[in-house]
Design brief:
alpha+beta, 6-stranded mixed β-sheet, 17 strands, single chain, about 500 residues, 4 domains, Alpha-Beta Plaits
């Protein structure tokens, strides 16, 4: 009997975790997914194949493992039984997709089997699962939380009663069990129950932003990870790689949040300045105050790169696609009002992330990229519509310099803070942005507005801002081939959320 390799995947993870707008259900869904993925799934496999399971990784809504002395049919049957348990534990909210291949022998056997399994798994995507009954009590009404048809549970909390579906109940039942949040609390040495240090909800964070009522959503994902892992020929190397990626991102998130926590103590805040909603593998979804969103994204990107470089060097790993600088993550950052539908904001942040990753690939950069937008006033779900209509993307004159590399984003933030520190008014920045928007005599009008700043330090700060963002020679424009861009509108967007020394 030969050995097998299997890949498992939890499809539609974002739909499950972010299927409602309520923080308590998002937290619970994330915690439930993580438990089923990281704890229950490998435990169930071990019960099915005692002593024959060789895990490679289980995280980020997926898993890879090998089984000794088993046929593909046996492994398929076992995964069917485990899938039933996962479906039941999530009240129908989650299920598994998987692929199983025989594992050959030889130096390239693992890499070849891994490629075949990925191809097979991609072919299974979208194939309907066998139907399973969902729990109902005969109440033909929509769930008061996710609006799915049919409800099964009467839920009472804080004096309010509502009917919800079994899936939403499963999420709420797990909201205080998040492994990632416990891990973060341990890293920071927090005392008491980890949930005591968690923001109440998104409104709690928005109320503590510099501009009240605004929060920031950070969506991060690893760059070119698929290309790197395809070159890994040995399961032990794959195992180490996966562990280093997961641990490095967790460490980076903990270090950055911990640094801002120290600054928050001056405000006498006992809760952390961010809510980590999804963290595993190379993925992160996090909500923080609007003013901390960009600095945190940039900081996590830098810390992750440094941590992976250090870990791979210490372990002596040489993998194609890796260099001494480490792995990178890119980010989409969206400012939103706390009452906006969270699912819509998440879609826009995901679009920003895709834009950042696309810009990185086009630039062939060796660092992560960041894309940013304030979506609080947007009438559009698609980022492309917002930028095409409001910022002239694709017209030859673009009123934004986003997306930026992480280092350029950091330089932009530093120069923007210098403008704030110099006391330049919001009105002056808006006037400069309006001049760029009108385009007519923009160069002359920009120089005139800079010269009319009241104090010398204000004029100097504005000139440094233009210079450091590539607009020193032809303000307000930075030229890239036939395209001209300006960063002054980016500054106007960010200005109400800035302080000189956060």
């Amino acid at each position: 009997m030969r050995n097998c390799l299997a890949i498992v995947d939890f499809p539609s993870v974002k739909k499950f975790v972010f299927g409602t707008d309520r923080a308590r259900e998002i937290r619970g869904a994330s915690a439930l997914l993580e438990r089923l993925n990281v704890v229950d799934l490998p435990r169930s496999l071990e019960k099915e194949f005692e002593g024959r399971i060789r895990p490679v990784f289980f995280s980020g809504g997926a898993g890879l493992f090998t089984v000794e002395s088993a046929t593909p049919a046996e492994l398929d049957a076992a995964l069917e039984r485990i899938d039933d348990k996962i479906h039941s534990a999530s009240a129908g909210g989650l299920h598994l997709d998987w692929s199983v291949v025989e594992l050959g022998t030889g130096a390239e056997a693992f890499a070849a089997a891994n490629r075949r399994a990925h191809i097979l798994l991609a072919g299974r995507k979208g194939i309907a699962k066998r139907p399973r009954p969902r729990e109902r009590l005969g109440v033909f009404d929509e769930c008061h939380s996710c609006s799915s048809p049919g409800v099964s549970v009467r839920w009472t909390e804080d004096g309010q009663e509502e009917w919800i579906c079994g899936t939403c109940k499963a999420k709420r039942d797990n909201r205080r069990e998040g492994r990632s949040w416990r891990d973060l609390a341990e890293r920071l040495g927090l005392q008491g129950h980890p949930e005591e240090h968690r923001p109440d909800d998104f409104s709690w964070l928005a109320a503590r932003s510099i501009r009240k009522g605004y929060a920031g959503l950070v969506y991060m994902d690893g760059d070119a990870m698929g290309r790197v892992i395809k070159s890994i020929a040995h399961p032990d190397h794959y195992r180490v790689f996966s562990k280093v990626v997961d641990e490095s991102l967790r460490a980076a998130v903990g270090k950055v949040i911990g640094a801002y926590r120290e600054k928050w103590r001056n405000r006498r805040e006992d809760r952390l300045p961010a809510d980590v909603l999804l963290l595993g593998g190379d993925d992160l979804v996090m909500v923080t105050t609007a003013d901390l969103a960009l600095p945190m994204a940039i900081g996590i990107s830098a810390e992750f790169r440094s941590a992976t470089a250090s870990e791979f060097s210490a372990k002596g790993m040489k993998i194609e696609g890796l260099d001494q600088k480490g792995l990178t993550v890119s980010a989409g950052v969206a400012f939103f009002k706390d009452r906006q539908p969270f699912r819509v904001v998440l879609e826009q942040a995901e679009s920003l992330l895709r834009s950042a990753k696309r810009a990185r690939a086009e630039a062939k950069a060796d660092e992560g990229f960041v894309d940013f937008a304030d979506v609080s006033q947007s009438r559009f779900v698609a980022l492309e519509d917002v930028r095409r209509i409001g910022q002239g993307i694709g017209s030859g004159t673009e009123l934004t310099c986003w997306p930026r590399s992480a280092s350029r984003a950091e330089a932009f933030l530093e120069s923007a803070r210098s403008v704030v520190e110099a006391g330049v008014t919001k009105g002056r920045i808006n006037q400069l942005a309006a001049v760029a928007g009108r385009q007519l005599n923009a160069g002359f009008e920009t120089r005139r507005l800079i010269a009319r700043a009241k104090r010398a330090e204000q004029r100097e700060a504005l000139l440094r801002f233009f210079e450091s963002n590539g607009m020193g020679e032809n303000p307000p424009w930075a030229f890239e081939g036939r395209i001209r861009r300006t960063a002054i509108a980016d500054l106007a967007t960010l200005f109400p959320h800035l302080e000189a020394n956060p």
